[in-house]
Design brief:
Blueprint (H helix, E strand, L loop, with lengths): L1 H12 L2 H16 L2 E3 L2 E3 L2 H9 L6 H7 L5 H13 L1 H12 L5 H15 L13 H6 L8
Antiparallel strand pairs: 1-2
Helix pairs in contact: 2-3, 2-4, 3-5, 4-5, 5-6, 5-7, 6-7
Length: 143
Amino acid sequence: MKRVLVTLALLLSWPAWAESRYDELKRVVDRNTGFAHMTRGVNMFTLIALRSCVADGDIPVLAQMLHDRDQVMRLAAAFVLVDMGAQGRAALEQEVKRPADLDERLLLQDALRDAASPNREPLKDYVLTERERSLIKGCAKKP
């Protein structure tokens, strides 16, 4: 019952623009998702494409994506939030306290460990050739 009330409260407080933004960001992830051995998954193209489409104002939308049914969406959102600096990390720290699902909690903890790693490089610094960069399908509207 408590979960239903929380979900209802979120739906009622979720602004209309956020729903369309959520859908747009999901399309970016879907268009840039990798496939290996017949398995759909996140790769650097996915993360770079999503990161190029978001700004600080999208942090609440990315935080909501952490609870998507699709694990690829959750993974992409978590690691893009890591790349967004202190505000993104704060959103992850807030969300890690909430998930009832063990997989969600472990994913968020992994993302926070990555954020704390001294070897972590920003997504913008990931080395790609011009051909590889041309394969990334970004969003319709830049933030």
